[in-house]
Amino acid sequence: MTDISFIIPHKGRDDMLLQTLASIQALELNGNTIEVIVVSQNTEASDALQAMKATLPLEIVFSQDGQTISKSRNLGVSHAKGRFLAFLDADIDLAPNWLLTMLTTLQREGIVLASAMQVNSAFAPPLERIRTALSNAHLDTTVTFLPGRNLFLKRETFDAVGGFPEHLITCEDYYFTERVAQLGGLYYTSETHYVHIGEDKAFRPMFKKEIWRGQSNLASIKGRKIPLSEWPSFFVPLMPCAFAILTIGSAVMGSFSMAAIALLMTFVPILVYAIRLKWLVREETTLWHCIYFYIAYFPARAIGTINGLWSEISTSSHN
């Protein structure tokens, strides 16, 4: 019987996926048996990907283009034989001790889901350093949710929560890990690590991605209890946009004192979050980069959330 099944959804180019598979090949196994299931939305597998089968127990499953990442993950599990499931994105470079550390972490009392900390790639630009610092805000402790790019759990835990939510385009990891947290602890360890090869490195592409990522913010609330710590992530991004609109409206109406107050309130959330972020990144980047991050992040998330809300209303009106 296979011990560990790696499930990797994939779409597009193979370069990052091949690097992910190479890192799996380099893992310390200590006698454990593994299999790798790539669920691809491409129409065919490249020669380079097919060649990996010679040195890695690899199965390539083709799925319908445009389906959610949750559906790809669940499809991968339907082909899996392992007692443990390792969910990876197709752009993750694992440390050699990742697997053994994950197995050890799951042996901790009360722990049902494990994940490793993120480290920067070589010559990481400021935005990647910011993303890494945010990812590692809480280490060597239980957390309320875990990002979906590297998750490790028992097959029985996955079955107990019914898999990933296939109706969500994004935010599926929030939804899934929150449901798993009802069964036990989610542990984020610094004893091993990974590099997110495809991490955001430039602010303009990040802005577009955050609009896409934010579209399932509100939909992800349905069917789960939202911890108090998560509520700011839904509402704070809307505040600078609302106050910016109020600033313009007040100025047009000639109420310049109100416009001044609204303008000040536009930047208060940005500055507060930027100062907190600067504390997290330490000397990795400047306060200006932290401010610039939230100047881009908050509007993008707000636009994505509003787009998602509009989509929900439009869908409901046609049902």
Task: Characterize this entry briefly.
This protein is α/β, with parallel strands linked by helices and 319 residues long. The chain has helices at residues 15-25, 47-51, 69-79, 98-106, 126-135, 155-161, 172-181, 203-213, 231-235, 238-252, 256-281, 287-317, and strands spanning 4-10, 34-40, 58-62, 84-88, 92-94, 111-119, 141-143, 150-154, 185-196. Residues 5-156 form the Glycosyltransferase 2-like domain.
Radius of gyration computed on alpha carbons: 21 Å
Unreliably modeled segments: none
The fourth-level CATH homologous superfamily of the largest domain is: Spore Coat Polysaccharide Biosynthesis Protein SpsA, Chain A
What's the CATH class label of the largest domain? Alpha Beta
Number of strand segments: 9
The portion of residues forming beta strands comes to 15-25%
CA-to-CA gap between the ends?
46 Å
The SS-based structural class is alpha/beta
Please bin the fraction of helical residues.
40-55%
Mean pLDDT: 91
CATH architecture of the largest domain: Alpha-Beta Complex
Shape: elongated
- Major beta sheet, specifics? 9 strands, mixed
- What count of helical segments does DSSP give? 12
Helix-strand pattern: EHEHEHEEHEHEEHHEHHHHH
Count structural domains.
2
CATH topology of the largest domain: Spore Coat Polysaccharide Biosynthesis Protein SpsA, Chain A
Protein name: Glycosyltransferase
GO molecular function: transferase activity
Keywords: Membrane, Transferase, Transmembrane, Transmembrane helix
Pfam families: Glycos_transf_2
